[in-house]
Amino acid sequence: MLGILFVVFVACYLPFFAVYVVKGTCGEPCRPYLPPRVLIALEWVAYSGSMLNPIIYHVFNPDFRRAFETLLRCGCCRPATAASRQRQAASFAAGRATSAAARRTAAAARGAGVPATGIYRQSAVDIPICRVDAV
Description:
Elements: H1 2-26, H2 36-60, H3 62-73, H4 82-110
């Protein structure tokens, strides 16, 4: 995989850098041979090399593929199970306990009291994993 990434990187960036080295060293005599359209096209070829990296990683690396697909799906394409709902609720409760402890610590540092309940109270069911609005 690294060999493929290296070849794609060289193929996309070598023309870009070669033309700019020639342009910088040759100067005015080479200007007619380097029209602006060529420079712009070579910049876009270099940009496309960066665009190809995630595609190459997706094709050749199963760990990256799983993580990438998880990010793209955002948890919306699979039905929620009771176990996943329990994990989500436990994760939310742990986060809420941590943030409540952080608020109490910050309030103690300020010398003010923090209510145990209030505007911070939410339930795990109200927080979706991913929101997709139908058009």
